[in-house]
Amino acid sequence: MRPWFLALSVLFSATFSTSTAAEHLLILGADDYFGVCYVQSGHPAGIFPQLLKEVSKLSGDEYELQLHPWQRAQDMAASGQAGIAHFSRTAGRERIFDFSEPVMVDDIQLWVKKGHEFSYKSPRDLIGLRVGAKNGASFGQVLDNMMTQGEINVERDQGFQDRIRKLLLGRIDVAIVEGVYDHGPGSSEGSDGLQTITVLPAPLVQDPLYLAFPKSMHAQAALQRFNKALAALKKTSRYRELTTHP
Fold this sequence. Notes:
By secondary structure, this protein is α/β, with parallel strands linked by helices. It is 34% helix and 28% strand. The termini are far apart.
């Protein structure tokens, strides 16, 4: 083989392998997971979208994030249309999806009206209370099972505002709140009634959040690139900057 032909072959091979390694991947997420993933001025905002951008720089893949009501996003992903962001890992979901390494952790909060505080130590402390939670949200296998079996009386809703309104009206006793509320109750975010709410000091659960793809997409190679890039990102100050909150 002539040297110039060999050099051309190596160049072509390198170019081809690079172009085929990188992919354009559609990812679905929630449009109202405040602090983590939500719509702001018509565009995705929050910790998870920012982490996807940082990982993209290292993995070579382009992640196109589209946000929808959470249940719709899950249904679309389960049907094989796209991957899904900030996904909790459960045994049921593992039958349908392939998961990345944990991307971040969300401390799920418990909000109650002032004067109705209680010491939360385990899910059994919620038995006998009316609990508000987002439709389609998972809180780990133990809590999910207790809710499904009726041990915990849970009332599902479409989002944060509905849940807090029910709490203020006394229709539920405790609200499960996902996301990052840096300013907490009593801020300009939402109703003035938030001033009458207490956030219990112990989180309901520390929920690892993942990127996942339906098994029908055969996206294992993309997940391997994502995991490698994520591991590199976690060693940087940029990751700590995005995921550390007061």
